[in-house]
Design goal:
The protein is globular and about 35 Å long. Strands 3-2-5-6 form a 4-stranded antiparallel sheet, with no helix packed on it. Helices cover about 0% and strands about 70% of the residues. With about 70 residues, the chain is an all-beta fold. It has no helices and 6 strands. The protein has strands at about 1-10, 10-20, 25-35, 35-40, 50-60, 60-70.
Length: about 70
């Protein structure tokens, strides 16, 4: 299980998981979110071991983090 902690404004966001080749594997969240601090738990148990990227994108910013699953 993966816990994503992030802060946002009240805005539309998309949080997605990508594989090492840049293909979208899973959309974690896609919609309007309230302002404040948030934690989302993501089940990654069914994903094979490898390198992944988590991207949080909104109208005002984008952030990408590396995830290595063993």
């Amino acid at each position: 299980k993966l816990s994503l902690d992030f802060e946002s404004k009240r805005e539309y966001i998309k949080i997605a998981l990508f594989d090492g080749l840049g293909s979208e594997v899973k959309v974690i969240y896609n919609g309007m979110i309230s302002a404040g601090n948030h934690t989302l738990d993501v089940d990654i148990q069914n994903l094979p071991a490898g390198n992944y990227f988590v991207r949080i994108a909104s109208d005002s910013a984008q952030n990408t983090k590396l995830l290595v699953k063993y």
